[in-house]
Each structure stands twice: as structure tokens, then as C-alpha cells.
Design brief:
alpha/beta, Rossmann fold, 7-stranded parallel sheet, binds nicotinamide-adenine-dinucleotide
């Protein structure tokens, strides 16, 4: 795919699930990948897996809800070359309560990572890309940005916020060589979804039923869309929210 070889790309939440699949796929495509996660061991393990395959990766520990961490993370990513790609996959799930039962601390925790964290990542990544002469950012949102989930109002609100950030940001940099897009995964078999299904036995059949393909996605299927949007093949795509959801948002 055009424009990936030798490219310095940062992947947040790269230690697990969708972020891990993105990091592996971009490295396989010749990119130099900074794997960032708040869990140091997870980021290290994925970076090691990439290096063991003969590709280039470094690990960084960062909590995306901390401005200091995000600033340092983006600076660290510059050590693999001027940053021209970023996939922001770090995120946390809903607490699984009715709206009126969600307390403010739970709301703040969700939005602190899923929306404030995404804002901080985009802010510092854009600044680095302006200095590098351009780039592409992919934000992993969710179909929850477009359709409601039961017991997930705070999560839906955080993901809808990401779509707004992507649209506004895309316009700001459309003539400056920086593209900003979102991928909206449907239910994807990662530790996050498996954990949620283990806690709520009714979730698996209910969630499977809303996907017309009648199955969940694999992290690699989400990573494929992120790779396209990062690559130069997507040179006319900005501000888009690209659903990869087995038809979930068609219903
Ligand atoms: N799995 C799904 O069904 C699904 C569906 C739609 C959207 N998503 C979104 O995809 C993204 C990735 O989710 P996943 O399913 O791969 O989950 P996951 O739990 O497998 O991976 C998420 C990773 O993000 C990291 N992380 C969490 N908070 C962080 C923080 N504050 N700073 C840095 N890293 C942090 C975790 O340590 C973990 O390694 C999330 O934004 C999630 O909301 C997932």
C-alpha cells in the first residue's frame, strides 16, 4: 500500500486488541511503529513481537488522559522519524449501568480516556505533523457513535464526541496536508469485548443479533481499514467516519 514503507506511526492502545492488530499490520507494511499503552508490559510485548519478526518498533508507556504523558509520547514517537501517522485506539468500555446510575466519576473516567484523551492525542500529533509537513490520523471510535447501546449512554456520548472532533479537525487541516478520520468498529473480538461479555451473559446474543453478518469482527478486520486510511491510497479522504461493522449501522 502506497506511503507506508519507512513511515513513523504512533499507535495508542497498541498493547491489546485493535491497537495491537494495527501495530502489527503497519509494521508488516514497512512502517516504523511506536507502540504506546498505559500498561508498560503490554506495549513492550507487542513491540518485541514486531522486532522478532524483523520489523521496527519501540514501546512507550503513556496514559492518554494525561497531557504530560501525551506530550512525551508524541515526542518519543519522533525518535523513529518525523511523525506522519497516528492511530488512536486507546479506549475504555462503558460501566454497564443505566444513565441515571452512572456517577460523575464514571462519566469522567470514560470521557477522560475516550474523548479528552483523543483530543490530547490529536492536538500533539497534529503539531508534530505540521512540523513534519503533513500526515494522517485515524481515531478508533465505535458504532456507538451512531446508534445507542443499552447501559452505555456515557460510552455512546464519548464516541459521538470523537466523530465531532474528527469533522472539525479535518476541516482545520484540510489544506495543510493532514487528514483526520475515524474508524467505527462494530463488536470486535478483543479482550475488551470478551471481558464485557463475561460480566454480562445476555450481552453476547444481544450484540451478535444487531450485526447483519451475524458475527463479531476480528481486530485484523478493523486494522485493515485503519491501514488504508493511514496510507496514501486514502489521499482524498478526510473527516470521514468509516464503519467496519458487519452492517450494524445499516439497521
Ligand atoms: N472491541 C470492540 O467491540 C470495540 C467496538 C467498537 C469500538 N472499540 C474501540 O476500539 C478501541 C480499542 O478497543 P479494544 O477492544 O481493542 O480494547 P482492549 O481493551 O483490548 O485494548 C485497549 C487498550 O487501550 C489501553 N488503554 C486503556 N486506557 C488507556 C489510557 N488511558 N492510556 C493508554 N492506553 C490505554 C489498554 O491498556 C489496552 O491495551 C477502544 O477505543 C474501543 O472503545 C472496540
Amino acid at each position: 500500500m502506497r506511503g507506508l514503507s519507512g513511515k513513523s506511526v504512533l499507535v495508542t492502545g497498541g498493547g491489546s486488541g485493535i491497537g495491537r492488530a494495527v501495530a502489527l499490520l503497519l509494521a508488516e507494511s514497512g512502517s516504523r511503529v511506536t507502540v504506546a499503552d498505559r500498561t508498560a508490559e503490554a506495549a513492550e510485548a507487542v513491540a518485541r513481537e514486531i522486532r522478532d519478526a524483523g520489523q521496527v518498533a519501540e514501546a512507550v508507556t503513556a496514559d492518554v488522559s494525561s497531557e504530560d504523558d501525551v506530550r512525551a509520547m508524541v515526542e518519543a514517537a519522533g525518535r523513529l522519524g518525523p511523525l506522519t501517522g497516528a492511530v488512536n485506539a486507546a479506549g475504555v468500555p462503558q460501566v454497564g449501568k443505566l444513565l441515571h446510575e452512572v456517577d460523575l466519576a464514571e462519566w469522567d473516567r470514560c470521557h477522560g480516556v475516550n474523548l479528552r484523551g483523543l483530543f490530547l492525542c490529536n492536538k500533539y500529533e497534529v503539531a508534530a505533523m505540521l512540523a513534519a509537513g503533513g500526515g494522517s490520523i485515524v481515531n478508533i471510535a465505535s458504532t456507538a457513535a451512531m446508534v445507542g447501546f443499552p447501559n452505555g449512554a456515557e460510552y455512546c456520548a464519548s464516541k459521538a464526541g470523537v466523530m465531532g472532533l474528527v469533522r472539525g479537525g479535518a476541516i482545520d487541516y484540510a489544506t495543510k496536508g493532514i487528514r483526520i478520520n475515524a474508524v467505527l468498529p462494530g463488536g470486535t473480538l478483543t479482550p475488551m469485548l470478551k471481558g464485557a461479555m463475561a460480566l454480562d451473559r445476555g450481552l453476547e446474543p444481544a450484540l451478535a443479533a444487531v450485526h447483519p453478518m451475524n458475527r463479531f469482527g476480528q481486530p485484523e478486520e478493523i486494522a485493515a481499514a485503519a491501514r488504508f486510511l493511514i496510507s496514501d491510497e486514502a489521499s482524498f479522504v478526510t473527516g470521514a467516519s468509516y464503519a467496519v461493522d458487519g452492517g450494524h449501522t445499516c439497521i
